[in-house]
């Protein structure tokens, strides 16, 4: 089992370190922009003809809200979601394309062990990526002389990962269904990524202008972010339960299909 884990790590380590770099860039950029954005929002509120939004006072006075808005409800979440999908790609299908699958299938390891080993590595890498972002935020906040709640950072990280396991399972299913690394990735991003980004942007606008719509039930991105002040009672447990059920169904479909693939 350790060799399977090591093999999966070797295949995904470039993606993992690229993900760490992308997460660090996003976190550092928006922490560096904090003072400038707060100054701009303050000027807009002081201008009678300026751009006034009801969230601006929160953005000015609540650093925790600022981090939640730009990172966990937006750009860090998007980076994490992209790399969570990328971590799930690979395994026996990739080896079949590379011509080495017969050696792997000849080992005393079942196809299901190959699958769940790769999924375990993808999950561990996704968790490590999110925790690395927490470290970057803590250090960066100290550099810009801001204080943030470690407990809130960890709670939002846990929620993002707990809801985001669906992305890992979905990406792995697409990889077994569609031939070729690039084709499966493109189809996954088209089927899941485009609606995810569009709905996230649309629902954020609707919340900021104070309107509600039934599309809120499909707002998977907001479920990953949760409210900016996260607590046990504020956690979207119903959505998490539905997400875990879908994840289990996707894993079952992947196993069933993977057992019948002719390598």
TrEMBL record:
Q: Which domain of life is it from?
A: Bacteria
Instruction: Report if keyword Transmembrane helix is assigned.
Output: yes
Alphabetized, the UniProt keywords read: Membrane, Transmembrane, Transmembrane helix
Transmembrane spans: 12-31, 75-94, 115-144, 150-170, 182-199, 237-256
Record flagged with keyword DNA repair:
no
Protein name according to UniProt:
ABC-2 type transport system permease protein
Q: Which organism is this entry from?
A: Granulicella aggregans
